[in-house]
Write a structure and sequence with these properties.
With 336 residues, the protein is of the alpha+beta class. It folds into three domains: 167 residues, no CATH class; 52 residues, no CATH class; 86 residues. Helix 5 packs antiparallel against helix 6 and helix 6 runs antiparallel to helix 7.
Length: 336
């Protein structure tokens, strides 16, 4: 069957992109809430709450008017996210975390903007520090505003990347994120990773470390002492027989060799599944691609039977060179 369940909400981030010229010098500065002046801090927090109110009401028209031109030009992903999240955010109480102010000086976009926020120690990050790494960031002032939304639904964060334009703070990035998977937060997944490691199930441990890091921060380009420590722990179980860091790995299944490009955990609805992507020349024949997806799922589980202890199912996605893909999902109990 074709995968039809909704995927979780991800980052919608649009900032002007251009090629960086070599030889330019840039200043990248981060101000924590304690570093910035009170009017700026209040402006960021109040703007974030105002935009959250639009999100909770599903007011996509007002959000689009408040977006930067590059985000407004391609707003469909944000509108889809609003439709998916409005019910969960209705009636939620929002608490703003201390904001960050990021400044980039120069005349052209920075290929890799890295911001070190707060006090760092001799060993790196401290309990109150943070790091942001954002690609292709144009010069300007940016605010990072994270709000915790709690209510009848499981807790989640609503985050805005705001770009200053004259006296206004426009929406340059928008992110909605659940803080739990199946009722469990990041520290639970970290503990489970250590338990899997102690049993010698290093692949399961690796994937659970990934999920622990994912749940520990509200933004995928944000790093903290917790995520850094989890990264260091995970290196001891980093797999060599799965695609990691852009590599591909061959999987022989049903008499055919498939090139796996990525394998990662993903919360899908009420399930915690494992996603495997592989290269495919053509996915237009749905019946044939479904059979190949099934073969990949069976082959992966045959190679790594421990996965049955950690996941509810496997999602296989065949991906053409063009990027078009076809996905199938099977519960773990049906992969035989």
């Amino acid at each position: 069957m074709k995968l039809s369940r909704k995927m979780p909400l991800r980052l919608f981030f649009k900032i002007s992109i251009a090629v960086m010229s070599v030889g330019f010098a840039y200043a990248q500065t981060c101000f924590t809430a304690a570093d910035m002046d009170e009017p700026t801090r209040n402006a960021l927090q109040n703007t974030g709450k105002r935009y959250l109110d639009m999100v909770s009401r599903g007011d996509s028209a007002s959000l689009k008017q408040s977006a930067t031109p590059s985000l407004a030009a391609d707003f469909s992903a944000v509108e889809n996210a609003l439709n998916d999240s409005q019910a969960a955010l209705t009636g939620a109480q929002a608490t703003s975390r201390p904001p960050y102010l990021l400044k980039v000086e120069g005349t052209t976009p920075l290929q890799r903007a890295e911001f070190l926020c707060g006090v760092f120690g001799k060993s790196g990050q401290t309990a109150n520090s943070a790091e942001f790494v954002i690609p292709n960031l144009a010069p300007g002032n940016y605010g990072i505003v994270v709000l915790d939304a709690s209510g009848p639904k499981p807790p989640r964060t609503v985050s805005f990347v705001l770009q200053q334009q004259a006296a206004d703070w426009k929406i340059a990035g928008f992110y909605l994120k659940d803080l739990q998977v199946k009722g469990h937060e990041g520290n639970w997944f970290a503990d489970k990773a250590r338990a899997f490691k102690s049993k010698g199930q290093n692949h399961n441990a690796w994937f659970y470390y990934l999920e622990a890091r994912e749940l520990s921060v509200p933004l995928p380009f944000m790093y903290t002492q917790i995520t850094d420590n989890l990264y260091d722990e995970s290196q001891a179980v980093k797999p060599t027989d799965l695609p990691v860091d852009g590599t591909t790995v061959d999987l022989v299944a049903a008499g055919k060799t498939y090139k796996l490009t990525t394998v990662f955990p993903l919360a899908v609805g009420d399930d915690f599944d494992l996603v495997v992507k592989y290269q495919s020349a053509d996915v237009s024949d749905a019946a044939k691609t479904f059979q190949e997806n099934t073969a990949v799922m069976k082959g992966l589980l045959a190679r790594l039977p421990e996965l049955a202890d950690a996941f509810d199912g496997i999602v296989a996605r065949a991906v053409e060179p063009s990027g078009r893909d076809y996905g199938s999902m099977l519960p773990m109990k049906d992969i035989k």
